[in-house]
Amino acid sequence: MGFLTGKKVLITGVASERSIASGIAEAMHREGAQLAFTYQGEKIRPRVEALAGECGSDLVLPLDVTRDDEIAALTEALNRRWSTLDVFVHSIGFAPRELLAGGYLQTVTRDGYRIAHDISAYSFAALGQALRPLMRGRASSMLTLTYLGAVRAVPMYNVMGPAKASLEANVRYMAAELGPENIRVNGISAGPIKTLAAAGIRGFRTMLTHAEKGSALKRNVSIEEVGNAAAFLCSDLASGITGEILYVDAGFNIMGFSLPADDVDA
Ligand code: 0WD
Q1: How does DSSP classify residue 45?
Q2: pLDDT surpassing 90 at residue 262
């Protein structure tokens, strides 16, 4: 029996089979969870429906997080179908592409800043607020995906850095408020992984190589590894953990700096 048996899970942010959310869905399905999915826009609906089918789910609902009516309709649909919810996975991030190249101050605009924060950070709070009544009092858990750029200056990550910093602060504020209702809130800070969203960041391939060379494990991480950590964090095995950011980055963030192998003194 899997360690998520009996848990009802909402997964957002599947855009393709390479999405981090797809890795999370597969791990949670393997551990016995019942899954519901959201899709953003009709174009990707068939892809999300296919993945849902592979995970034994027919609950696939529209969600554009910039629309309050869609957040309300999603909550209502979940309430009608399940009446309760144990796990909410937020795997959504976006900034206008032109802000993810060049320097931060060189590219930032009022509108771009607003959009990045609205979609990447506020949406976690908005969904948390809407789903709270379905999740309270049942050992439930919310999870979001963040990146090192929240706490360090990373070239080209630009406006997404402040947006992820806001998201990580949301984890702490939401965890503090929802703790008394036995709802845990955590984040996973994943190392770089080639997905559709990542393709929007200029120089992403260089980031992958740099992360591989600079990490403790000397490699990058996979969506399966992030999925396994997510399944654990959202399960009762992690019942004492809330308000945390768990790094799943092959140990990149712990390093001061690394040397090329041939520069190391004998
Ligand atoms: O290296 C990476 N890929 C990392 C990603 C490292 C560390 C963290 N992350 C984060 C991302 O910032 C994001 O929060 O993980 C989360 C998932 O990202 P992903 O799996 O890399 O990206 P992707 O497969 O593109 O899924 C993100 C999805 C969107 O995809 P597209 O490519 O269509 O922008 O977020 C969704 C959408 O499905 N999304 C929205 N969903 C609802 N409403 C919206 C929206 N307005 N905007 C984007």
Answers
A1: H
A2: no
Q: What's the 223 CA to ligand 1 centre distance in angstroms?
A: 13
Q: What is the pLDDT of residues 112-131, one digit of tens each?
A: 999 999 999 999 999 999 99
What is d(CA 219, CA 222) in angstroms, rounded to the nearest whole number?
A: 10
* pLDDT of 188: 99
Q: How far is the CA of 13 from the centre of ligand 1 (A)?
A: 6
Which active-site residues does the annotation give? 147, 157
DSSP bridge pairs for 143: 89, 186
Q: What is the mean pLDDT of the chain?
A: 96
Question: Atom 15 of ligand 1 has which residue's CA nearest to it?
Answer: 145
Q: Would you say residue 35 has pLDDT above 70?
A: yes
The pair of structure tokens assigned to 234 is 């959202």
Query: Which whole number is the average pLDDT over 23-32?
Result: 98
Token digits of residue 77: 């649909």
Taking the CA of residue 146 as reference, the ligand 1 atom at the shortest distance is 8
CB atoms within 10 A of CB 7: 24
Q: For the whole model, what pTM was predicted?
A: 0.97
Q: Which residues line ligand 1 (CB under 6 A)?
A: 13, 15-16, 19-21, 40, 63-66, 91-94, 119, 145-147, 190, 192-193, 195-198
Q: CA–CA separation, 235 vs 193, rounded Å?
A: 24
Joined together, the tokens standing for residue 210 give: 């740099």
SS3 222: coil
